Amino acid sequence: MLKHTGRYFREWTTSVVSIKRFFSDKRAGGFISDLHELRANKGKLSEASDFPCSAKSAALMPSVKGVSLSNKDITLPDELYGFVSLVLLSFRQLGWKMNNHYREPFAQEYSGHANVKIYDVSVYSYILLRIIPGWIKRNLHRKIDKKDHDNFICYFGSFSEQQRVLKLHNQLVGHAFLVDARGRVRWRAHAVPTDREVKAMIRSTRHLVAEL
């Protein structure tokens, strides 16, 4: 009896420590830290650059293996090679809504362009969400326009390594990345974009298309 009690206590203690880390560890995207940042400055730490960074200084887009809403296995950056792509990443519905402010003007400018793509990546990294992928995808099917299902990716699993490479500081906001034809992240922004950032995104895409 005492043996089992000790084991249960250790498991309970481990769970409590994990929960505390989830809410307070900024390096792991702590929810409370992210929330404070959102309240302080709407999650916007800085504005994006006016032009894409040089190819030499750009980081490669990390591997993201997911399933589209049309049930196709998709791996980034493999699908991005040969194209200029806007990759919109979100962990929460709030972030997804923020990303609409990038998606809509971008689609208006480049819809139908043979060399330009848009991908939405919705990340579900918490264990409770990983065990209900079917319910999540059915819910998204109702929210996302059918024409966008092929390019809407659901990712289930740990995202810590990708988060480190992409230097994502806040999981509550949306993140936008312009990726060139070789899979390099050349421009980035986060949270709700300013008018200047939207213009910079369109301009930067034009520059990257010219490199093709």
Task: Characterize the structure shown.
Helix content is 42%, strand content 21%. It contains 7 helices and 8 strands; from the N terminus they run ααββββαβααβαββα. The protein has an 8-stranded mixed β-sheet with strand order 1-8-7-4-5-6-2-3, with helices on both faces. It starts with a helix and ends with a helix. Residues 1-5 and 7-29 have low confidence and may be disordered.
Gap from first CA to last CA: 69 Å
Order of helices and strands: HHEEEEHEHHEHEEH
Strand content: 15-25%
Low-pLDDT runs of 5+ residues are 1-5, 7-29
Q: What's a concise summary of this model?
A:
This protein has 212 residues and is of the alpha+beta class. It contains seven helices and eight strands; from the N terminus they run ααββββαβααβαββα.
State the main characteristics.
8-stranded mixed beta sheet; 7 helices; 2 domains; 21% strand; Glutaredoxin; disordered N terminus; alpha+beta; 212 residues; 8 strands
